[in-house]
Amino acid sequence: MSTKPFVVLDNVAKRWNGQLGVENISLDIEEGSFVALLGPSGCGKSTSLRLLAGLELPDEGKIFIEGRDVTTSAASDRNLSMVFQSYALFPHLSVAENVIFGLKVRRVPKAERMEKMARALEITGLEGLESRKPGELSGGQRQRVALARAIVAGQRLCLMDEPLSNLDAKLRTSVRKDIKKLQRDLGITVVYVTHDQTEAMSMADKIVLMKDGRIQQIGSPNELYNSPANTFVAGFIGAPAMALIESHILGGVEDGYKIGLRAENISIVPKGEGKLSCNVTEVEFLGSETLIGLEHEGAIGLTVLQPGLLIIPLGQQIDITFDDQHLHFFDSAGERLPG
Amino acid sequence: MSKHVNMERRRQAIYGWLMLSPAALMLSVFAFYPSGATFFSSLFSRHTRRKPSEFTGLENYNDLFADPTFWLVVKNNLFYAAITVPVSIGIALAMALWANSKIPARGFVRTAYFTPTVLPMIAAANLWLFFYTPGLGVLDQIGALFGFASVNWLGQPETALWAIIFVTIWKEAGFFMIFYLAALQTIPEDYKEAADIEGTSRWTYTRRIVLPLLMPTTLFILVNAMINSVKLIDHLFILTKGGPSDASKLILYYIWEMAFAFFDAPHAAALTILVLSVLCIVAAIQFLYLDRRTHYQ
Fold first, then answer.
1. Whole-model pTM above 0.90?
2. Is A250 a residue whose pLDDT tops 80?
């Protein structure tokens, strides 16, 4: 891996009529990595991607791609490709024409064009569909045409804006694997926008979690899951997300903190032996395990995972316990405390 | 089983015919029957006090083909269509592309372009009568500023048809623009962005993406413009009355003149039938040939 990052966003900001778009976006992306921009809708992840693509120009900050300042460059001068959420396939052009549209615009000679197209179609498994129109394809096939169009140009940076959101759940899982494999095989750098944490966790080398136009945390899936930088990250990552407990209700901990605890680190114990006593509010059988939602006045999102089927009547009081080493501490402002 | 399937099918058919019947009835009374009646009367001679009407077959048609005014009028109308149809479509497209782009005062531009369409043709013609008036008219006034001599735009055979053509384009372009504008707004922003990333120039994007996607609209407008080039003659009544020396006379005006100024209904009927058949053929070609080359979303 080169010492200099492949893509750099340096303190980038974009505002619309004084309204917040994104603010203070600083991000280094290494060549060949898979970076996911993750966050709830309206958090500025798509805006960040569009700034990187050159579809929007930043009000502040600088953007570098391959060491070149592209802050004000046109999208076409940034040497990148993009997969749109809607795929943006031209409906009147066939699959083949859609895929080679960019090559034609760039005046690539015909022989080379055909060769590249054949390869792109082979990689995406679209052979035999060359002459179909997008309207005659299934959602998954359309998605693959969009991918083929993005990789045919051979750009080393590929941006993807929620490419799986129009697919059904089953297809999403398989295409997720295909995209990841494609990225690894071609050695390209992918910046991937999604609101689905499963996608981000399973595909990305690095996740950028955003909220309200600001980056909350940058790190590997492991870092985000196991050491969330603040209570937002704690409450966003993981299904179920981390429970947050007011410190005063736990014995032996100072007042004024928030304490995070994951469902898998909580266990149910016989009455009187636990550290907290809670009401059961929800029992959800997931097949291999049962998710039990708990209620306590000083805590939000408390859940326990138990293997197999476990039926507990709603409203019943149960005692829970946990190991202190699994606790995450946050200060009153929600920031993670060291240690 | 087949029995109640048959019943159901028949019920569906009756339902369909019931839905169709109001429109079919209205069209029969006001379009199909008059067309048939017109064709029928075009086969008879003119009824005068001395000579009653009698069946003459295609005599009326032969008379028309032998009439030099008929050929002049046909030539005028072909020329009129050849200019007004492509030019008004071209201008409409250009205006729509402009009014659809991100420009300041976009709403004003759209309204301004659409205004001529809102005016009744008679009012518009009166307006242009004032523009064209020799000496007093706006055109002459502006011309005088640059030292040009006064031109009687409507009063000389060389310019009369051009003056009519100009008014028609002015009137129609804004109307067609609205259709293009509506079609342009259905083209997602993504297409432009996807093309931008590939480095597509504005012109290539317009030619390769926008124009093909506008084809259904263009086809619709084309048919309408062609029909209008025969149908729209209101301004002739105000501006030139077909003159001078038939230089700006169009087919429909000639039909009106024949029927209601010269009271020669059979010849007018024959001419009407000719116009109808030509329009039918043109529409058929457009829909059968161009339709196949058009992408519908």
1. no
2. no
DSSP 8-state assignment for residue B152: -
Structure tokens at A34: 């898979």
- A215/chain B closest Cα distance in angstroms: 26
- Whether A84 sits inside 8 A of B194 (CB atoms) is yes
Cβ–Cβ contact A82 with B under 8 A: yes
Output the pLDDT for position B77.
92
CATH number of A7-233: 3.40.50.300
Is A133 in contact with A92 (CB distance < 8 Å)? yes
- Report how far residue A21's alpha carbon sits from residue B201's, in angstroms, rounded to the nearest whole number: 28
Q: Are B232 and B121 in contact, with CB atoms under 8 Å apart?
A: yes
Domain with CATH 2.40.50.140 in chain A: 238-330
Closest CA to A234 of A327, A339, A320: A327
CB contact under 8 A, B197 and A81: yes
The one-character DSSP state at A230 is: B
Task: State whether residue A77 sits within 8 Å of chain B by CB.
Answer: yes
Buried b (16+ CB within 10 A) or exposed e, A16-38: eeeeebbbebebbbbbbbbbbbb
Phi, psi of A75 (to 5 degrees): -55, -40
**Does residue A278 contact residue A303 with C-beta atoms inside 8 Å?**
no
Which pLDDT score, from 0 to 100, does residue A273 have?
A: 82
8 Å CB contact between A164 and A175: yes
Amino acid at B138: V
Q: Looking at the partner chain, which of B191, B198, B295 has a beta carbon nearest the beta carbon of A76?
A: B198
**Cβ <8 Å between A106 and B198:** yes
Q: Tell me which fold the domain A238-330 belongs to.
A: OB fold (Dihydrolipoamide Acetyltransferase, E2P) (2.40.50)
Q: Which residue of A has its CA nearest to B215?
A: A92
Q: Name the one residue in this structure whose structure tokens are 């805006």.
A: A47
